Amino acid sequence: MNTSARPATLDRSGALVLIVDDVPDNLALLHDALDESGYTVLVATSGESALQRAAQALPDIVLLDAVMPGGIDGFEVARRLKASPGTAAIPIVFMTGLTETEHLVAALEAGGSDYVTKPIKPKEVLARMQVHLRGAQQAHQAHQATQTRRALDAFGYASLSVRASDGRLLWQTPLARELLLRYYGSSGPLLPAAVLAWLQQHLSAAEREGLEPPRLSAELGAQRLSIALHQQIEAADEDGSGGEWLLVMRESSDLALIEQLGLALRLTAREAEVLYWVVKGKINRDIADIVGASPATVKKHLERIHAKLGVETRTAAAALTISRMHQLHPQWEL
């Protein structure tokens, strides 16, 4: 067979096929056809050896004879492969001379993805393999994407995919949904307007020059959300529509810093929180709104803070606090 005639729809480089059949002529016929088509081929002549080779080599697909002598036939091989986490995702194409409906149903119930009937026709086998290899590859990519998203969430990073032309959210991790809802009051089906405006403002430079735009930040009390444009997943159409982008978000918090500040300066929790916002440049009215108190209560807290720190003005209190914050967290910035 001329390899230049291989279909361009499937990259077979590295694809590993395990053929399981006890008939030498069948093995030779399929082995030659697959080898000429660019596949790497392993063979097994019994159920026991098939299970052993599958576990060791983890083939991309298994061509499995349904009826073989010995204690383990093809149906049992399929059931065991599907029961093992390491081989469960490998597609199985049964090769069988049994054409009764009950046998074909049994093949599918055992875990087969498809079947071909004997006598074997190599072209038919190759065509069926293409379909299932492509499906397995797509499923594997989808699984990897899901695992990546879960890993991001596990380490405190949230990710989402958005269509830049209209802001439609194509997918988002659970943590991303939670953060958007908390900081922007919406988790879909569209990206919040402020985030979409930031994205569209910087897209041209990102596409044209590959520059990473400045991160978008939002604050919620002593917690902050940072949003970064990570990468383009899919290019826009010729008319400018579409275009899929991956955004990564990370939440940071100064709550622990406020607690340490209170301990270091011998302040109550509320006094430490008020002092934190003084350092951030907030006036009493703003601080009252943030901490849920009245301006008069905030003023009383400040009077006690001045007395404990031995200062007379909020400017002096802020300066002393900044010095202490840098001692606690050298990387801290306003």
Low-confidence stretches: 1-13
CATH superfamily of the largest domain, called what?
Response regulator
**How many separate domains?**
3
Q: List the total number of helices.
A: 12
What general form does the structure show? elongated
Helix fraction, binned, reads 40-55%
Please state the CA-atom Rg, rounded to the nearest Å: 32 Å
Major β-sheet profile: 5 strands, parallel
InterPro entries: CheY-like_superfamily, Sig_transdc_resp-reg_C-effctor, Sig_transdc_resp-reg_receiver, Tscrpt_reg_LuxR_C, WalR-like, WH-like_DNA-bd_sf
Organism: Roseateles aquae
Keywords: DNA-binding, Phosphoprotein, Transcription, Transcription regulation, Two-component regulatory system
Protein name: Response regulator
Structure description:
With 334 residues, the protein is an alpha/beta fold. It has three domains: 144 residues, 3-Layer(aba) Sandwich (Rossmann fold); 98 residues, PAS domain (Beta-Lactamase); 74 residues, Arc Repressor Mutant, subunit A (Orthogonal Bundle). Helices cover 49% and strands 20% of the residues. Strands 2-1-3-4-5 form a five-stranded parallel sheet, with helices on both faces. A hairpin with a 5-residue loop joins strand 9 and strand 10. Helix 8 packs across helix 12. The longest helix has 33 residues. It starts with 15 loop residues before the first strand and ends in a 6-residue tail after the last helix. This is Response regulator. InterPro entries: CheY-like_superfamily (IPR011006), Sig_transdc_resp-reg_C-effctor (IPR016032), Sig_transdc_resp-reg_receiver (IPR001789), Tscrpt_reg_LuxR_C (IPR000792), WalR-like (IPR039420), WH-like_DNA-bd_sf (IPR036388). Keywords: DNA-binding, Phosphoprotein, Transcription, Transcription regulation, Two-component regulatory system.
